[in-house]
Amino acid sequence: MIIEHIDAQLPGTVTDRHAFRGDQTIVVAKESLLALVELLHREGFQLLVDITAVDWPERAEAQGLARFDVVYHWLNLASQERLRVKVPVADGETVPSLTGRFKTADWFEREIFDLFGIGFEGHPNLKRLLTWDDFPGHALRKDFPLDGGDPFCMEGCTAPYNNGERA
Amino acid sequence: MAEMNINDAVLTTRLDAVVNWGRKNSLWPLPFGTACCAIEFMSMQASKYDMSRFGAEAMRFSPRQSDMLMILGTVTNKLAPVLRTIYAQMAEPKWVISLGVCASSGGMYRTYATLQGVDRVIPVDVYVPGCPPRPESMLYGVMKLQEKIEKESLSMRKDHIARFYESLARQDALQAEKGLTSQQTIREMLMDAADRGAGTIF
């Protein structure tokens, strides 16, 4: 299995691991990400299916841990093995960009930068992808109001998630 | 042809009435299809419902050649400046039908991404409810618009459109002054309008 191989080749890289119904997940620190990616690429994990992120504001507050997880999904086309890699990132920190190895990372990373506000070091063109350039805030953060502080959520609006505040 | 003499050949009427009669029976639709409503609209144009019966035969995909804007589907905030530009470029006199709940009020999408009703950025004449509205509803919307055109005076429509142009000039001025993107400019204008208690920016 690939995780044992990673342990043998890059000891100490994997800080946490779990599997659910055959979905292997490992957690690595961002410092060791690039070395891990090179290894994975050599081992046949050559399809980067997706990059996304998760926001855990309560985790950051209660336990003092990093607020975000950047999540990578890889597929090994030869063995049909899949691997999920999570990289914890604190608010305001950056992650090394994978655009050097995977062309597809370009737009994925721009999307995360747009919606979560996580920077990517070494990205050739890091600007917003889905919202406009001077969009206020990052839409997928948990503290972003669902209606975006929509100016037309006026008084008398009874939507349960209207907090009456503006972004 | 019956025999005609001069007395049978002359008909007197109001200018408004005869011009509006011509306008209402030759609407040239511009489909602004962004989502599922556009599929219903295709059905409405096709053989079974056949919008051509109402004189709205000439489908044009250029704003320069159309006078009835049909907004079919969800309009996002990102698309709002585009919609305003398209409406501004249409041939006058022009009318707008907002089809389906997304275009009319944001529908079920009460989110940061969706414009909560296109009537916030452009003037709308007829709203058609439904998600999506059936082709019959859409045809009914066109008929309602025809009724509306029948009753209009010529100067009324002119003033109505002039107010929109004025807001477009304000938008350009604000954008140049603050150095914003067009989307953010519209957002600021919407905020200002909300502070004044107004629902629209024109």
UniProtKB/TrEMBL annotation, chain A:
Gene: nuoC
Function comment: NDH-1 shuttles electrons from NADH, via FMN and iron-sulfur (Fe-S) centers, to quinones in the respiratory chain. The immediate electron acceptor for the enzyme in this species is believed to be ubiquinone. Couples the redox reaction to proton translocation (for every two electrons transferred, four hydrogen ions are translocated across the cytoplasmic membrane), and thus conserves the redox energy in a proton gradient.
NCBIfam families: NuoC_fam
Subunit text: NDH-1 is composed of 14 different subunits. Subunits NuoB, C, D, E, F, and G constitute the peripheral sector of the complex.
PANTHER family, per database record: NADH DEHYDROGENASE [UBIQUINONE] IRON-SULFUR PROTEIN 3, MITOCHONDRIAL, NADH DEHYDROGENASE UBIQUINONE IRON-SULFUR PROTEIN 3
Membrane topology value: Peripheral membrane protein
Listed HAMAP family: NDH1_NuoC
Subcellular location: Cell membrane
A Pfam short name: Complex1_30kDa
EC number, UniProt record: 7.1.1.-
PROSITE patterns: COMPLEX1_30K
Catalysis performed (reactions): a quinone + NADH + 5 H(+)(in) = a quinol + NAD(+) + 4 H(+)(out)
The entry's keywords: Cell membrane, Membrane, NAD, Quinone, Translocase, Transport, Ubiquinone
InterPro entries for the chain: NADH_DH_suC (IPR010218), NADH_quin_OxRdtase_su_C/D-like (IPR037232), NADH_UbQ_OxRdtase_30kDa_su (IPR001268), NADH_UbQ_OxRdtase_CS (IPR020396)
Class of the enzyme per the UniProt entry, highest EC level: translocase
Tree of life domain: Bacteria
Family under the similarity heading: Belongs to the complex I 30 kDa subunit family.
Span of domain NADH:ubiquinone oxidoreductase 30kDa subunit: 26-148
Keyword Ubl conjugation (UniProt): no
Official protein name in the record: NADH-quinone oxidoreductase subunit C
Coiled coil spans: none
UniProtKB/TrEMBL annotation, chain B:
Residues at which [4Fe-4S] cluster binds: C36, C37, C102, C131
Stored InterPro entries: NADH_UbQ_OxRdtase-like_20kDa, NADH_UQ_OxRdtase_20Kd_su
Transit peptide as UniProt keyword: no
Cofactor details (free text): Binds 1 [4Fe-4S] cluster.
Swiss-Prot/TrEMBL keywords: 4Fe-4S, Cell membrane, Iron, Iron-sulfur, Membrane, Metal-binding, NAD, Quinone, Translocase, Transport, Ubiquinone
Enzyme Commission designation: 7.1.1.-
Any matching Pfam family: Oxidored_q6
Reactions catalysed: a quinone + NADH + 5 H(+)(in) = a quinol + NAD(+) + 4 H(+)(out)
Cofactor: [4Fe-4S] cluster
SUPFAM superfamilies referenced in this protein's UniProt entry, alphabetically: HydA/Nqo6-like (SSF56770)
Stored PROSITE patterns: COMPLEX1_20K
Compartments it resides in: Cell membrane
Residues covered by the NADH:ubiquinone oxidoreductase-like 20kDa subunit domain: 36-145
PANTHER family noted in UniProt: NADH DEHYDROGENASE, NADH DEHYDROGENASE [UBIQUINONE] IRON-SULFUR PROTEIN 7, MITOCHONDRIAL
Function recorded in the entry: NDH-1 shuttles electrons from NADH, via FMN and iron-sulfur (Fe-S) centers, to quinones in the respiratory chain. The immediate electron acceptor for the enzyme in this species is believed to be ubiquinone. Couples the redox reaction to proton translocation (for every two electrons transferred, four hydrogen ions are translocated across the cytoplasmic membrane), and thus conserves the redox energy in a proton gradient.
Family in the record: Belongs to the complex I 20 kDa subunit family.
HAMAP family named in the record: NDH1_NuoB
Oligomeric and partner information: NDH-1 is composed of 14 different subunits. Subunits NuoB, C, D, E, F, and G constitute the peripheral sector of the complex.
Name used for this protein in its record: NADH-quinone oxidoreductase subunit B
Gene (UniProt): nuoB_1
